[in-house]
Amino acid sequence: MQIDMKDIVAAIDVGTTKVCTLVGRRSDEQGMEVLGYSTVKNTGMKKGVVFDVDATTSAIRDSVNAIEKNIGYKVKSAFVGVTGSHIQFENRRENIQTGNLKGVVTGEDTTRAAIEVSYKFEAPGRQMIHANAIGFALDGEEGIRNPVGMHTTQLEVEAHLVSGDADQIGRLKKAVESAGVKVEGLVLQPIASGFSVLTTEERENGAVIIDIGGGTSDIVGFRSGNVAYTGVIPIGGYQFTNDIATTFNTTFETAESLKIEHASADYQAGALHDEISVPVIGRDSLLKIHRLEICQLVRERALELGRMIRIKLESEQFGDLESDTTSDMTIVLTGGASNLPGFTDLVRRTVGVNVRHGVPQLGEMVPEDLKEPIYSTVLGILLSGVNEWVSDSEFKEIIPDANVDTQLMESDGVMQRLLGRIGNLVPKPISVARKGRV
Ligand SMILES: Nc1ncnc2c1ncn2[C@@H]1O[C@H](COP(=O)(O)OP(=O)(O)OP(=O)(O)O)[C@@H](O)[C@H]1O
Ligand SMILES: [Mg+2]
């Protein structure tokens, strides 16, 4: 079958423990088809940020080369996930140029609103990643979720803005581009995970996705289908492993295997008195410990993470989110470290709302072995790329007279989320993010 190159989309999740590249193609029948994927260990990141550009580039290059060999296509450009403690968010209200309004608010007006907010964003050393329109005010009347079809002379938008440190984003971009791949668009990693793991109902009713990776736990709250809250907790699987390594004076690699094989946050887990032999750094003989000791260590760390999640969710912005959605709120845990047995129950008890473990929910679009929490992010990045991308010329067609800085638009382009190509898998069409160039 002849494949049109413009239908090919690539996604790269540059994670703290691994780089994962995924190549898919837009398909009329099922929206998206995964052509191939490759995962390579990454040693160049700490807590979600690039500290060693060369090591990260090398992991990206290996991952991309492997996939190219496999599928027979060159990966020229890709959508790339971004995360880290440098990510900040704010809610901002902006008056939208009423000159463009024709009396009745259209879908284009709401799209334009998000774009205008995105282009008005100015903060030294920061780069905008996403602008999501979460509410509107018409002639001063606030709290309107979907104003399309309503009459007004003055449109204001309340937007949730996600930005990152320009230097950190620059390093990520350098790592990708040094591997020979152009950055086509940036996607906040947990937003991506939210696309692949949450159901449409969950995003509509109010849901929080927490992606617990190797270096960070990334949080995104969805309300009425849109992103309304983002946050990062600088704890991930690394800390669990590190606790084991330092307590038993063993290598990180040994501690990682001990964790994967024996750890549980469930204090009622069976076989707690099994004896385990641990190689100790600088000692010939093995240290004998009980499995219980490993479980106690990870349980303490899991309790700390559970408490930090609760504190984040009790924060002001989140309180706002919750009051709107009441008892339907669901928390979904994904990312590799969410695989720790007993962790979902522990978070449920600590936070006191519905909590479930989330694996990518993409039906037949995705091969079975990608339906694991470590692939939630890369699958969501691919969905964003497949679903949201609009070329500059298409964009100009949608909003020919948009009040945006055309020079910025020429150089950065605009990524516009569209409904439709893959049915109802993604939320409402009121979100924009700037493309690649920093
Ligand atoms: N069964 C398991 N029990 C406990 N931890 C696990 C399990 N399986 C994987 N992990 C942990 O998951 C982490 C890797 O998860 P993931 O691949 O989602 O991270 P990442 O995307 O590389 O990192 P980040 O998103 O923080 O940049 C590792 O710390 C690993 O130890
Ligand atoms: Mg990750």
Short description:
The protein contains 13 helices and 20 strands. The longest helix has 24 residues, at 291-314.
Name some characteristics of this structure.
438 residues, alpha+beta, Nucleotidyltransferase, domain 5, six-stranded antiparallel beta sheet, five-stranded mixed beta sheet, 13 helices, 20 strands, globular, disordered C terminus, binds adenosine-5'-triphosphate, binds magnesium ion
Major sheet summary line:
6 strands, antiparallel
> Low-confidence parts, pLDDT < 50 over ≥5 residues?
389-438
Please give the number of β-strands: 20
CA-CA gap between termini: 37 Å
What's the overall average pLDDT, rounded?
81
CATH domain class of the largest domain:
Alpha Beta
Beta strand % = 25-35%
> What's the CATH architecture name of the largest domain?
2-Layer Sandwich
Explain what this protein looks like in three dimensions.
With 438 residues, the protein is an alpha+beta fold. It has 2 domains: 1-88 and 163-198 and 361-438, ATPase, nucleotide binding domain (Nucleotidyltransferase, domain 5); 199-359, ATPase, nucleotide binding domain (Nucleotidyltransferase, domain 5, 2-Layer Sandwich). 35% of the residues lie in helices and 29% in strands. It is built from 13 helices and 20 strands. It has helices spanning 53-71, 107-120, 166-178, 189-197, 200-205, 237-248, 252-262, 291-314, 316-325, 343-351, 376-388, 392-398, 406-412; strands spanning 8-14, 18-27, 31-41, 45-46, 49-50, 77-82, 88-96, 126-138, 141-144, 155-165, 182-188, 207-212, 217-223, 226-233, 275-279, 286-290, 330-334, 354-357, 414-416, 431-434. Strands 7, 8, 9, 10, 19 and 20 form a 6-stranded antiparallel beta sheet that branches. The longest helix is centred in the last third of the chain and has 24 residues, at 291-314. The relative contact order is 0.16. Residues 13, 15, 189, 211, 213, 335, 377 line the site of magnesium ion (MG).
